[in-house]
Amino acid sequence: MSDLAARLRALPAFPDVMPELDLATLPMDPTELFLTWLEEAIASGTRQPHAMTFQTLLPGGAPVGRTLILKDLDETGFQISTRNTSAKAHQLAEDPRAAMTFFWRESGRQVQVTGVVTALGEDVSQRDWLARPTSDGTPNPDWQVYAVQPERIEFMQARADRNHVYVSYRREDGSWHHAQGR
After folding, report:
1. Is pLDDT of 20 > 80?
2. Cα angle vertex 28, ends 14, 76, to 5°?
3. Which domains does the chain have, with CATH numbers?
């Protein structure tokens, strides 16, 4: 083991006290659990609780990720925004599959969302653009809001003993089904 490996292994991973994931009270719709966890992260003062790693696919299928923020969550899905000329917009045009990974270190929680991305209407995109803190009130035709319509959502609640608790939801025939584990 190298010195770096030993130092990395010694770093603290999770807080001493973390919430439990009660498997007996899981909601049927995983977005309910996601919103509960997000609201708890917001209430606890977590810095940028809406930040996530957003992964798209390069030509050839290699994944590429970057940090984005969640703009909204509604019946259209988990929303993000970008310029139509961005690399991620081009990647989504080639292959609309994407993944989001939220990680709230302070509670030892992670949520992974995978699904197909669709571009939302111009009205949604311009409302988002005009609501930005730096907006001068001029519309931006290059701005696009996308929504990830989830097909799979996995929740992980860390445990100090590293026997983390996982719950995976999968959409099948328009309904959500969940199971413990990955």
Report:
1. yes
2. 90
3. 50-180 (2.30.110.10)
